[in-house]
Amino acid sequence: MNTESFNWEYAPAPEAKDHAKIKKQYDLFINGKFTKPLSKKYFATTSPSSLEKLAEVAEANENDVNAAVKAARVAYEKYWKKLTAKERGKYIFRIARIIQERSRELAVIESMDGGKPIRESRDFDIPNAANYFFYYAGWADKLEYAFPNKTPKSLGVAAQIIPWNFPLLMAAWKIAPALATGNTVVLKPAEGTPLTALKLAEIIQYADLPPGVVNIITGFGATGAAMVNHKDVNKIAFTGSTDVGKIIQKAVAGSNKKLTLELGGKAANIVFDDAPINQAVEGIVNGIFFNQGHVCCAGSRLFVQENVAEEVISKLKERMETLIVGDPLDKNTDIGAINSKEQLDKINSYLHIGKEEGLEIHQSNCNVPSKGYFCKPTLFIGASQSNRVVQEEIFGPVLTIQTFRTIEEVIEKANNIPYGLSAGVWTDKGSKIFNLTTKLRAGVVWANTYNKFDPTSPFGGYKESGFGREGGLHGLLPYITF
Ligand code: NAI
Ligand code: MG
Which DSSP category does 276 fall into? Predict the structure, then answer.
């Protein structure tokens, strides 16, 4: 098909942002109150699309971390441990309801602070964040049914460190199960995207949780490290890079702290010749271009069966031409801003590496805003296992394409990677799906769909993608002991 026959010029449809209330400065949320940092330091969070400074947030030092952990410990002993499970559930339920009520504002702030398209923060991140709170609210008073003939007990204080790709959603994934199981929390959002977590602090205050049950502190890696190394923390939950995950695992070794790590990924998305090709192309696009490819489970390695490769690649190129890269607050935008300059530099360096490796590069012809951090959707065609762009996590809208002939070959190639978080399979045949799901070393395997999430289903990885599960009944386990 002639790509010129497409004319996808849409008039701008910007989401209003006047209802999004962002304060000039945010303090640390400790013991139920916003408190000035003992460090006396603040840093700016900016918008990766407009490059404007959105707010200043406090930089917690070791003393601030101590104060937060202390508040969480006191709250655990004094209130949370003593509260009936049913009452705990009510508080969590209340948080879920307020997130729903304030979803418009949260979506706008998420897109401003992190660069993701408003369509995604509005339809995916925020509703899902509410859903995880709803779901775990339900478990609070049913733990003995979740683990029959056992007596689940809470651990104490959970230190939780989250990344910038799904800021509010990751906060929900961490906080909801911790509270449902009777633990108290100190959470640190990523330095580039702290605003929705601070809004969540306001929500928690409004929901009238006992002071100190949830503490939200901001800062960089050093703040996270102080949380990890704190002696009075019982449990650490981390989502982020494999490099930092390894540092944390070393730091925790030999201590009594429970640990879950959700790290990088390099998922195989596998298309067989009997797959519904048009749906598969949609799934490929969703798998890698969703959220600018800032997704640990992104379908970043495409494997197409040789006899349909030409058709799939040509349809994929056509579909890419229709993708709109631009203002995250525009409702038509498909691909928003890359989260930070560092991340854009990293992606660009991989574009360079792929070219140096001799791969054919294809980018769509779309316009890209001159201001802000943006990257066109990109394919590397004719890739092979030894390419760095195939082996390493790029975390951007960049897809490598490899072909295969047999099932054995594709299983071998899909698994031959340090990561094991997720995978996708596209085929008409149920038996092939079952065959592959048992052989792919990945925590999640999607069949004839991609990037689908539900609070009831566990998520987590193998190998260098980490360990432990979040979501579902399994997601309660890291927060309890028997
Ligand atoms: P990062 O792992 O440095 O940051 C994640 C969180 O960990 C942030 O809150 C950060 O402040 C904190 N942190 C940093 N150093 C720490 C330390 N020593 N101890 C405790 N906490 C610490 O990730 P970064 O640098 O933002 O991104 C680098 C790469 O990591 C990305 O290009 C991507 O490949 C990968 N990544 C993977 C994510 C995932 O969901 N699996 C999420 C974010 C990044
Ligand atoms: Mg920001």
Answer: -
Mean pLDDT of the 394-408 span: 98
- Whether the CB of 191 sits within 6 Å of ligand 1: yes
Regarding whether 393 and 308 lie in a shared domain, the answer is yes
Per-residue pLDDT band at 1 (split at 50, 70, 90): very low
Mean pLDDT of 156-185: 98
Ramachandran sector of residue 213 (left: φ over 0; alpha: ψ -120 to 50; beta: rest): alpha
Using the predicted structure, report yes or no on whether residue 435 has a pLDDT greater than 70. yes
Active site residue 375: no
Domain of 66?
25-263+465-481
Number of domains within the chain: 2
pLDDT at 194: 98
Q: Which CATH number covers residue 336? A: 3.40.309.10
Single out the catalytic residue among 15, 110, 296, 297.
Answer: 296
Q: State whether 167 and 204 are in the same domain.
A: yes
Question: Per-residue pLDDT for 5 more than 90?
Answer: no
User: CA-CA distance, 132 to 218, in Å (whole number)?
Assistant: 23
The answer to whether residue 296 is catalytic is: yes
Distance (Å) from CA 26 to ligand 2 centroid: 13
Distance 8 CA to ligand 1 centre (A): 36
My answer on whether 327 and 224 are in the same domain is no
Q: How far is CA 31 from CA 61, 214, 216, 265, in A?
A: 16, 8, 9, 36
- 472 and 426 housed in the same domain: no
pLDDT band at 10 (very low <50, low <70, confident <90, very high): confident
| DSSP 3-state of 365 | coil
Instruction: Tell me, yes or no, whether 251 and 372 share the same domain.
Output: no
> What's the whole-model pTM score?
0.97
